[in-house]
Design brief:
- With 463 residues, the protein is an alpha+beta fold.
- It is built from 16 helices and 16 strands.
- The longest helix has 26 residues.
- 23% of the residues are buried.
């Protein structure tokens, strides 16, 4: 009766750390350098972009701002509105397809170098190493009883973690509420409920995910690690151990009787997720390449060539040449094709985007009327939508019938981001065409930017 219960307990334990907290050993090498280069690049962009200003025709505003309250997205000189949701959809499709394409080529490369979880875990682990020491010192500190020294070290570490998490949260919210306005409200304790919630949530989220959960996120919480396997094929290059060259392992490495692996275990010690790459491809591997750096260093010391652990495909490890033929890798060809198609669609959509939209409604209550001079008049309501970042002045013209004109005012203004309804009366001389509805065209042009033109079709009723 106890055996099924024990099996259930063992299955539950698989969801948690079985060896305690992972203290990864520091390593140097090309992949570690590339990894930290991505950390610097991503964080310079994240922490710095919200401080950039943009001069929008004399008005200084934040260059990158998601203004949810006014339903606008500022990207330097580009202003996007809810009507531009197609561009957002295309951007999301491109991001997903690019991730799939990268995964098909080189596995979880994004996870190892650019994923926010990886980036912030690296930063928090670096702070921990600076405060507590190397991996052996941290392990010893974990195993020691709580005392004044341990309390001081741990308090210092968590205080720095908390400060970084809070500043990260402030930066994040600063992309939605202008950061130069946000900081004074925080110092005066006058943040609104929306800002207050996200400041607390994002700070706690960053602190818990990067400082406490760490590799558990990659192992148990990240859905991408679970379905990435469907994007692999036999030609996908991932961080792999060359068993044909490395086995059998021997600490003394006797020529002819053993492989190149000296079973030093350094590849396991440097792994941020705590796996042994020599056990084969595992979903927990984030393809950071740190085990490659560590193994190459050992190979150099013992006089063996590097590459015992390297980026290699199943085909290469079997001794066959790598294939790059689209015919043999249809998923890669499909992902590449989708990237090209949606990139082209996004560029075309952006190029065709007009900061001026016009909707024409003809007055159906009175189809037409005849003036004392004998001219036939129709009344219309034009809705001018100004999607630019500044107030606009517009001239309205009409064409499509002989002698057609606009009676009265034909110049109107519309504030930025507003929908301005304007009433327009159009007239034609008698006998201007066949009876019934005749097609006409309203042409609305910006006076500030003559190239901004919108043409909308309507109809004119003749007796």
């Amino acid at each position: 009766m106890d055996k099924p219960v024990n099996k259930v307990r063992e299955a539950k334990l698989e969801l948690y750390r079985k060896k305690g907290k992972i203290h990864a050993r520091a390593v140097t090498g090309r992949f570690n350098t590339l990894r930290w280069s991505m950390v610097w690049l991503t964080q310079i962009v994240f922490y710095g972009a919200c401080w950039l200003n943009w001069d929008a025709n004399g008005t200084i505003r934040q260059a990158v701002l998601f203004d949810i309250a006014h339903e606008k997205l500022y990207l330097f000189g580009l202003v996007l509105w809810p009507q531009d949701a197609l561009l957002l959809a295309i951007a999301l499709i491109l991001a997903a397809t690019g991730l799939f394409f990268t995964t098909a080529l080189a596995g979880r490369l994004f996870c190892g170098f650019a994923c926010p979880q990886t980036v912030y875990t690296a930063i928090f682990a670096w702070i921990e190493a600076k405060v507590e020491g190397d991996h052996l010192a941290r392990l010893k500190l974990d195993q020691s009883p709580m005392g004044p020294h341990k309390l001081l070290v741990r308090t210092t570490k968590h205080a720095i973690w908390a400060a970084l998490a809070i500043w990260t949260a402030i930066t994040f919210v600063g992309y939605f509420t202008p950061i130069r306005q946000l900081l004074p409200t925080i110092s005066d304790w006058q943040v609104g409920p929306w800002e207050g919630f996200w400041l607390i949530f994002y700070a706690a989220f960053t602190y818990a995910q990067a400082g406490l959960a760490r590799e558990a996120v990659c192992q148990h919480m990240c859905p991408y690690s679970r379905f990435q396997g469907v994007m692999f094929d036999s030609a996908t290059r991932t961080v792999s151990y060359d068993a044909q060259r490395g086995e059998p392992r021997s600490a003394r490495r006797q020529t002819g009787n053993s492989g190149d692996c000296v079973d030093c275990g350094i590849c396991v010690q440097v792994c941020p997720t705590g796996i042994d790459i020599r056990d084969g491809l595992q979903y927990q591997c984030i393809n950071c390449g740190l085990c490659i750096d560590a193994c190459d260093e050992v190979m150099h010391k013992i006089g063996a060539p590097g590459g015992l652990i390297r980026f290699a495909s199943e085909i290469e490890l079997a001794g066959h040449p790598a294939t790059h033929s689209p015919a043999k890798r249809p998923r890669v060809a499909i992902y590449a094709g989708l990237l090209l198609i949606f990139s082209g669609l996004g560029i075309w959509t952006l190029s065709q985007r007009s900061p001026l939209l016009v909707d024409v409604l003809r007055d159906r209550g009175a189809l037409l009327r005849e003036t004392a001079e004998g001219r036939i008049e129709n009344a219309y309501t034009l809705k001018l939508m100004n999607l630019s970042d500044q107030r606009g002045d517009f001239r309205i013209e009409v064409e499509g019938m002989p002698g057609i004109t606009i009676e009265g005012q034909n110049e109107f203004s519309a504030e930025s981001g507003s929908i301005q309804p304007v009433s327009v009366t159009v007239s034609v001389p008698p006998a201007s065409g066949r009876p019934g509805l005749q097609p006409i065209y309203f042409r609305v042009a910006s006076k500030q930017v003559p190239t901004t033109v919108a043409v909308e079709k309507s109809s004119f009723a003749l007796p």
